[in-house]
Amino acid sequence: YYNGTAWIAIDSPPLVSSVSPTDVDSNAGGNVTFTITGERFGIGATVKFLSNTGTVLTPSSVTRVNATQLTAVIARNSFVNAQEPYDVQVTNTSGLSSVLADQINVDSNPTWNTSAGTIATIREDATGTHATLSATDADGDTIVYSIASGSLPGGLSLNSSTGAISGDPTNVSASTTSTFNARATANSKTTDRTFAIVVNPTNYFGDGSDGALST
Predict the structure, then answer these.
(1) Which of 58, 63, 88 is nearest to 74 (CA)?
(2) Which pTM value belongs to this model?
(3) Which of 30, 44, 163, 177 has the fewest C-beta atoms lying within 10 Å of its C-beta?
(4) Is there a cis peptide before residue 85, judged by omega within 30 degrees of 0?
(5) How do beta strands 156-158 and 164-167 pair?
(6) How much is the pLDDT for 214?
(7) Each residue of 112-126: pLDDT tens digit?
């Protein structure tokens, strides 16, 4: 067609069908490389990430692999949790563009506040809450606690909402250590940490003896 100055080849807009990854940890540092797939990506095509507040992010580099794939590199800390989800826009040199909406979310891995290792040493007749696991999420997402592997001492349970470990431990014949990996989950992100709880018999003196009188 004639644009008033020159004859221009009739063009079709690009089509964006998917992007990977769809989650960004903005606190992780460094860059993230997005792979964008679709159709009719022309030579010189550009990529923009559009936040739900209208902020436009421009990658530091865009590589056209072929007509169906682009890669775009951008700093992770460019993305802000409060401005998710982000759209992906591809524009050809003709000016025609396509947008794939609500594709990229910003989620950081939760951080443990409770130090790894032994978090409680209790007697077999102890009741109530013996320890409380604590983790935080930079995005303010709710933390859910679970046991990823290993197990709590018999008779104890973990509150998935508060992180409290409570209950009446099963009686033991000798000092017993239970080691387990606890998992903190915030939205789709998880972080594991290894903890232990020691359960001692009622008459345990801490020197390996059980307090029984010898004859």
Answers:
(1) 58
(2) 0.67
(3) 30
(4) yes
(5) antiparallel
(6) 31
(7) 999 999 999 999 999
